Amino acid sequence: MSSTILVVAEAGEEGLRPASLGLLTAARKVATEMGSTVTALLMGHDLDSAASQLAGAGIDRLLVADDERLKDLPPQALAGVLAGTIEREKPLAVFIPTTTAGIEYAPRVAARLRLPIASDATDLAVEDGRVVAIRPVLGGRVQTAVKLEGEGPGIITLRSGSFEIAGGGGAGVSPERIDVTLDDLDLRVKIAATAPKEVSGKGLDTADVIVGGGRGLKEASNFELVEQLAAALHGAVAATRAITDAGWRPHNEQIGQTGRVVSPRVYVAVGISGAAQHIAGLQGAEHIVAINRDPDAPIFRIASFGIVGDLFEVVPAILEELKTSA
Question: SS3 for 123?
């Protein structure tokens, strides 16, 4: 086994995905404790721009699998490329993002190579020379430590937003192109077509300010208050699971254990009680501002600032103040 942590990065039409840079932060943390290096693997098609960005993110090596057959990130084909890379490089551990593709190809690779796997980790540790995955269970009420045993490297999928976005680390490394060898089984599943999500405003992965709405808004039309506040703060819009399940907002805006994990500078919770499942998605927020009429709402236990009051009075007052001071 070599002395490197292998990070699997992803790129889309918009370039390198933020989740990839979060994985690099996790890898640097582990590599420092283990005295190892960080190697990134970028898979897909037409990757020059993403590879250039990744090369300057403080990694030691960059492997690039650029092939037209990997366009749109078909999981079966990605599993074939990653399995071959693991067999060749023999890393200490493999970190994979919990993206739509990642959660599909990660278990395929683990099964193919008979390697241990831990999914949806939010933190990492090192014990006796092995990587330990920290995972939330029971709605985020309990943290479990999963030590990956066995001869080969452990595979860990990391929840997006759990680690800060990695910054630049120097002049960069030269990308190393690797041959893409795929068999018929790897190519039996193809992506026929893709459609972009309808996303308004800033993305949740990169927004400094996020305004989330909960059941306290009472009905779908009142979510306009959240949109207006997010716009005034130049932030992004989010929601609880109850809101997305009700069809008020798209599921890609859901924050929580079964949704997104975010790391904004400020998270404003409007009419959100603070269920454990939702709080699990806010672990990376620097400051939480809660607006709720119930002084005993659980959200106030973790809030940096709290406003006890009717959101239908508080939010308009905030908007008016922001308009006046603009």
Answer: strand
